Amino acid sequence: MKQYYLQTKDEVLKEFKTSIAGLSTKQAEENLAKYGKNALVEGKKKTAFQVFLEQFKDLMVIILITAAVISAFTGDLESTLVIIAVLILNAILGTVQHVKAEKSLESLKSLSSPSAKVLRNGEKIEIDSKDVVPGDIMLLEAGDMVTADGRILDNYSLQVNESSLTGESTNIDKADVDFDHEIPLGDRLNMVYSSSLVTYGRANVLVTGTGMNTEIGKIASLMNETKERRTPLQVSLDKFSSKLSTVILIICAIVLGLQIWRGQPIMDALLFAVALAVAAIPEALSSIVTIVQAMGTQKMAKENAIIKNLAAVESLGSVSVICSDKTGTLTQNKMTVEDIYIGGEVLKPEQLDLGNQLHRYLLYDAVLNNDSSLKDGKSIGDPTESALLEMYRKVPGIDLGNNQLGLSESDLRGLLTRQQEVPFDSDRKLMSTKHLIHTVPTIFVKGAIDVLLDRCDNIRIGDEVRPLTDEDRKKILAQNEHFSENGLRVLTFAYKEKDEDLTPETEHGFTFIGLVSEMDPPREESVEAVARAKKAGIRTVMITGDHKVTAAAIAKKIGIFNDGDIAVTGLELDKMSDEELEQKIEKISVYARVSPENKIRIVNAWQKKDKIVSMTGDGVNDAPALKKADIGVAMGITGTEVSKDAASMILADDNFATIIKQLPMAVPFLKISKTQSCTYFLVTCLRSSLYFLPQLVVSQYHLSQFNFCLSTW
Questions:
Q1: What is the DSSP string of 471-538?
Q2: Cα–Cα distance between 609 and 85 in angstroms, integer?
Q3: 622 is catalytic
Q4: How many other C-beta atoms can be found within 10 angstroms of the C-beta atom of residue 283?
Q5: How far, in Å, CA of 339 to CA of 490, rounded?
Q6: List 136, 144, 176, 325, catalytic entry
Q7: Beta-bridge partners for 383
Q8: Mean pLDDT confidence for 250-260
């Protein structure tokens, strides 16, 4: 696929022979014929009947079918019916399981929007999303589902949620910018992608890819190409069945030959050999395996682990590497304020003092200059802003339960009403609101430090307001760098007391208040779970769509990233050869900004080292790797239907620790060793000799008595 994010707007318009007025009707028809419908295409699928027939390919099954046919010819209809009934039942169960596993692409298709707004012949029209073609000018606004990949032409504070593709739940601020070097999908601010959701603003977009030529289409192709790996138990049983069947056939052939050599009628000899084959084949083995696995799934379901594929129970017990997603699995998927730099010192939210006016102004800024809200313990709005409200509630003296202060964030907003505002946009990277604080008109602002610090003329330390010096700036920037190095997201806060109209042009002359750092903190139980996994000899690796610095910082807190370990990005991984990756893979603990292809490559590299790999994920981008892994684990709460369909196991609580809890219940219980195989072969030979040898040394009368005793035993 061509990287259109590296092209300018004019270059892209020229390539698709279109203009800002859109395609003509004739051009649209030509492009539709050239590129096809804007829909995902399935690979060639087997019919249910083909899948049903494939269930009879197993060698042991073929032996049983042969036995059933011979039994029918010899008049033993009872044996024939029993064998056929068991085989058909097993085939039906196998077919049903296969059909369930083929749902992923159908879920991908359901992500597409039924309609789209485009410009045709210079006019805005609404068309079926399947009729969108490359070259169309697509009009996006808040609430729209993006129906195709496209290059942004005109941007009006567009924010898009791309969690289905990147795995990160935060909204992305899009921008009309040009890039001259390769960057990961999550950083391509001048592009929008099919299946993402517009959460704010609007934009005009030139469609560059539809159908299978989109990023979501690439994932669909990977899903079609990726084959599920057989579990260790299935591989073991297949080897065992093959060897056992071969031995049984050889013994039966010898017995048949000796019976004929002794002068027995051919049909009697054949029936004897068939009876021996049926007796030697452990037809109850699959039933026993299924029953034991089913018992395991029942216990695991009570612990929030839902098993979709019974064979996954044994795979989980064999896992040696867990490739875990970060957001929501290892972390809480909830932004939280960590540290606050104010008045020249670093404080926790609990250390803020309502009696300190500087601290109060920070809280005013955090609550009043904020569009989110908290209701019944749930946040409504941007996670970053919701974290500021949680910070406000942690301040000593604001005990909403005992009503000591009597001011919730909604009460504060009611008393100090918003008079004017300039909403946040991706170009300014600021949000400003105007209020009347103690009869003084006051403008509060928050935003990115690289923009806001340059608009500050003063700094407040305690009750003193003085000019902002170069030394002050160095200290503030050094503290911001320290926060960033630890994977924290930083917001800058400032204010000014001035009675003027609030517009983008008047956003300057502020007084610096402080910095607030936030992060998605690790789950408390994740640290213990990773330690338990390590003690059990299981390696945990973090794979995330987040930035490398943030991911490495979180991994270090959880215990995944240790001294000597390596963190790499998807782009760095792309530059590694397979040999280089094979050499480094045991040292790499964190993969950041990765693509679906990267995830499959990581899983495959571990599998080449004969490791049993578990992969966790919740987004559409995780689905191919979930299918490729020995056991894919999807999130039950935040997971997309695509990821759930592709996985073998679903976590009802989205908690990494739940995986570790299941290990004692999923220990490998059916490992067939060489010793066990040899023992079974010897028993089979002994049973055969017990049927055959007496006929050489005893009379027919004694033989009948012997067979009666043997059958009774």
A1: HHHHHHHHHHHHHHHTT-EEEEEEEEE--S---GGG--SEEEEEEEEEE-PBPHHHHHHHHHHHHTT-
A2: 42
A3: no
A4: 16
A5: 10
A6: 325
A7: none
A8: 84
The total number of residues shown for the chain amounts to: 713
pLDDT value at position 308?
Answer: 73
DSSP characters over 382-425:
-HHHHHHHHHHHHSTT--TTTTSS---HHHHHHHS---EEEEEE
What is the pLDDT, as a whole number, of residue 307?
78
Confidence of residue 269 (pLDDT cuts 50, 70, 90): confident
Nearest to 231 by CA among 342, 105, 97, 360: 97
Distance CA 693, CA 255 (A): 10
pLDDT value for 647? 86
pLDDT tens per residue, range 171-227: 888 988 899 889 988 899 999 999 898 988 899 999 999 999 999 888 888 877 777
CA distances from 183 to 546, 593, 594 (A): 13, 9, 11
Pick the closest to residue 378 from 367, 390, 368 (CA basis). Answer: 390
Q: What residues pair up with 204 in beta bridges, in sequence order?
A: 139, 154
Amino acid at 374: L
For residue 292, what pLDDT is reported? 60
Distance CA 591, CA 565 (A): 11
Residue keyed to tokens 């492009």 = 31
- Are the beta carbons of 297 and 631 closer than 8 angstroms? no
Instruction: Name which of 134, 135, 141 is nearest 117 in CA terms.
Output: 141
Burial 677-699 (b: 16+ CB within 10 A, else e): beebbeebeeebeebbebbeeee
Closest by Cα among 543, 656, 539 to 596: 543
Distance CA 397, CA 465 (A): 26
Class of residue 160 by CB neighbours under 10 A (exposed 0-12, middle 13-18, buried 19+): buried
- Asked whether the beta carbons of 628 and 652 are under 8 A apart, the reply is no
Which of 67, 167, 221, 163 is closest to 592 using CA atoms?
Answer: 167
Predicted TM-score (pTM) of the model is 0.72
| Amino acid sitting at position 193 | Y
The label of the residue with tokens 């950083």 reads 187
CA distances (Å), origin 364, targets 216, 339, 357, 447, 457: 43, 17, 10, 15, 20
Q: Is 50 helix (H, G, I), strand (E, B) or coil?
A: helix
**What backbone phi and psi angles, to 5 degrees, belong to 590?**
-135, 130
Query: Is there a contact between 594 and 186 (Cβ–Cβ < 8 Å)?
Result: no
